[in-house]
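Structure (tokenized):
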């Protein structure tokens, strides 16, 4: 997926769209009062899961996008 920006195209990294959609889903479901802190915790949990050997959400999202 590329996004037009001025006269150039910016390429969105593989899996990024899916990663953000996951965050948006959780924000809408939880309705946190501090979205920035919630996002930081959300991404920290994903990082811990990835480091523990679970499926990498970015790699998985990239597969879904293709």
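Design, position by position:
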């Amino acid at each position: 997926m590329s996004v037009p920006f001025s006269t150039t195209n910016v390429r969105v990294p593989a899996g990024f769209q899916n990663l953000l959609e996951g965050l948006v889903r959780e924000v809408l479901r939880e309705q946190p009062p501090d979205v920035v802190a919630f996002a930081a915790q959300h991404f920290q949990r994903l990082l811990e899961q990835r480091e523990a050997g679970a499926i990498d959400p970015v790699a998985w999202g990239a597969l879904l996008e293709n």
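Reviewer-requested clarification: Strands lie at 2-5, 8-11. The mean pLDDT is 83.
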